[in-house]
Fold these 4 entries.
Entry 1:
Amino acid sequence: MAILGLALGSQHPESARADGDPASDVLSGQTVFLPQDAGSSPKQQAQLGALLRAAQRSGYPIKVALIASSSDLGSVGELWRQPDNYALFLGQELSLVYRGRLLVIMPNGYGLYTHGGPVAAERSALARLRAPGVGGLAAAALTTIQRLAAAAGHRLSVPDSAVASGPSSSSSDTVPWIVFAIGAALIALAWTASLRARPPHIGRRRTSSG
């Protein structure tokens, strides 16, 4: 089967679309392949995206493919449970558009590919990690990226909550009240100013009429 993986790896990104490998298509323009059956939470998805952006900024670009089942491999399902062989295949598929590090995570283990071969420190870091299992792919990705980056001299941290696209529920509830209070204060100021600017004879007419 290793020979099959090497043979498949001789293809190019154009053939990825022909052979139906979903991760090849996604990773040609994005940093993570995250299928629905990976079971990741919205928070984990946000954290993973934030961590990959931080890795890029720190000078450690890496792309990640989470493979939860053989169906995620498309027409190369024979590489299921072979993370190293699939990393080699996928890395060579992407070689015309991307030559950085590529991490593959399957329930039974990890695969790492870089153009020219990963450094020994990164291989050693992977060897110390436990297999993530079916439901732990996203959590394993967060840990693994940090360990690999550290082995290459880059310290990365996962934000507690990377879901920062909008305000939190507490702040979103507070904002309308603040706006309402400011509006009421402005109305009161305008009303007071209008009273002070009112001509004196209006006040005298009302007094005399009373």
Entry 2:
Amino acid sequence: MIRRMQKCDIERVVAVHLSSFPGFFLSFLGPRFLALYYAGICSSPEGIGFVSLNPAGDPAGFVVGTSNPRGFYKTLLKRDGMKFFLASLGFICRKPLIAKRVARALSYPSKIPTGEELAGLFSIGVMPEMQGNGTGKKLVLEFIKEARRKGCKKVFLTTDRDHNDNVNAFYQKMGFKIERQYDTPEGRRMNEYWMEIS
């Protein structure tokens, strides 16, 4: 079963995120940072979020993003920027060299596409026991359906280019096309995908 993500799902969504993305930057920032992020999406009128429930009725997969992504991030950081900074402070204290990367993350809105007819798919995660049964596809289809309902005509997302063949194949099979490839300042090689949904 797939339903809209609610605030009561956030703790479980954070757990799915940490399981799905071990070693990734946002995971390193910790559960408190992630909970703030997902709560921001849940509470935003632009937010798009769905969860997939396991047989016990608990979220075991999720997809999140927003319409008007640049506008969403600007509003979120204006309202909660200090909370995000404080949530990441422990991580920065343990690894001071990472401060520049955190600062870049908090300036992310200036780097993403803009437009009210755009939707950004920011994150999708599925627990191992739910993988391989079409859960990810159903979540993405629900996301696209909701983005279309909000008046969006295009969806974009980014994912790693290297050592990520299954994920890239998944998005291409869903109909996403690579529009741009780039390297992050940390040297991650990324694919930027777009899909027309109008």
Entry 3:
Amino acid sequence: MSRRIFIATLACLAADLLAASDPAGKKHFWSTLKTGGRVILLRHVQTDPGVGDPANFKLESCGTQRNLSAKGRADAKRIGQAFASRNIPVREVLSSRWCRCIDTAQLAFGRVKPVAMLDSMFDDPASARRQKADAVLAFAGGYTGPGNLVLVTHAQNIQALTGISPAPGELIVVALATSEEFTVIGRLAVPGEY
């Protein structure tokens, strides 16, 4: 983890603790999204228990994958309600092609465009991880709006991009720090706190 990511992570952890107990902290998080032009990384919401996907996993078949739990489906809807109730503009919603990410995006925002650059890095070799991270940085790094860009993906992907291991349903607002990494502007980690 780079020094910049480590420092940004510590600052965001402190902000998370404040936001969880201070309504003004949560209000500040949402105000950063009000005018658009931001990139939001969203880890898919809670799934059925497990790690990775079953051995018979097929990308084109949701029945072979680890999918959203009932709590996860409710949390995804809460995310959408939180954006709508605050009039947060969303221009585009991109997602991993895994069903749990597509379903998170669809339940939260009512639309989604699945893209390979957000697919899980869980079993990828280092070179494939770097290619996916580079594709996301190139695509989203210079984003300016209008509206906000939402990228729904997996914990490993977000960790590769920010150094943060996010909770299910965690929202992380980022900006390009260098051509190789994002800097974290803010995060909201607790689905019940949206």
Entry 4:
Amino acid sequence: MLVDRARRLLVAVGSIGALPSDSADERVLKRAIVFTAIVTIFASGGWVLVGLLIGSVLVMATSVGGCLVIAADVVAFARQREIERFVAVLLAAGLGIVFVGYVTLGGSVAGGSDLTWGIMAPIGAVIVYGPRRSVPWFAAFGVMVIVALAIDPLVRPLGQPPPYPFSLVLVGFNVLAPAAIVFVLLRYIDGQRTAAKVQSERLLLNILPAPISERLKAGEQHIAEQYPEASVLFADVVDFTPLVGRTPAPVLIELLTALFTRFDELADQHGLEKIKTIGDAYMAAAGVPVARPDHALAAVGMGIAMQRAIADWNVAGSHHLRLRVGVASGPVIAGVIGRRKFAYDLWGDTVNVASRMESTGEPGCIQVTEETYRQLGQRYAFVRREGVVVKGKAPMTTYMLDVGQLN
């Protein structure tokens, strides 16, 4: 229970300033900055103990004031969600606290290592603003260091000097703490961005074939190729439209998702490339984007597996769905269209004929063209059909395979 509460608290804190429109990188960046601000508050609060030890009210006041400024900045960010203002105030406050701490501790005698904290400002600026826009913050850090060293002869400790062992501990803390914060911050951002990149690549592979995805990432902009030999498969759920009218939307989507997920698995098993789904229709191809001589056999093999899968699925779920499958073989053009939303698609007469093989077929069967049948080498017992009317074509001879008759 305590762990769950802590997790929910961390999620809530990490969501400060988040917007629904934020990209994955923006969410990671905001979360990292918020946690850095909170850690800085606790680290600044530690200087209250230093002020107590050396008897300096001003050191304590500087620490408390710095904590309040950063806390107010976090609250303002939670309300206004202005990331650039939030970061600018945070970086400026950090430099101010470092400079005042240097002076109140007594300059280089006791507070020289305090300047190390200032390096977090330009590093943070690089992370948030990028290299170019971070230059002013590096310049501000440099000016702060120069001014601090210039006035060092005039600075005197405002309290009792701390014991020597404590001074050594303080130096170590001032060097290691900011380094640790920056290291953890960079590791967190890199880890989150790597995870987001992996997720994006997975999503990209769900849209595009792996070889095509690699070519796009390599900078290739226009991908269009002609394949002299390929097989295109279309499958369609029979009488799906009446089912839509009597099935609640969530149930319908869940049904299609389960069915098409199974078809995706079959495509992987048989080496086909899923092209797209159109409503209740499923389109895949063999021989693209990687050519293969047995494309017709692979496509028909998947069609048989799809028919058997939907039959098993009906038995397991008490459904009564039927499937028509059509396959055509021949030349196709394949390529990527779109700039903002990529789509890998196929064009050509073979694609159109494959669609007609499905629409003029029979439930529970696979209808193929004469070319597909020829490439199968009489592997299956097809029934010859004469005079099949296909839009835009002369009456065709096709071949029908009743999957239910297979052993």
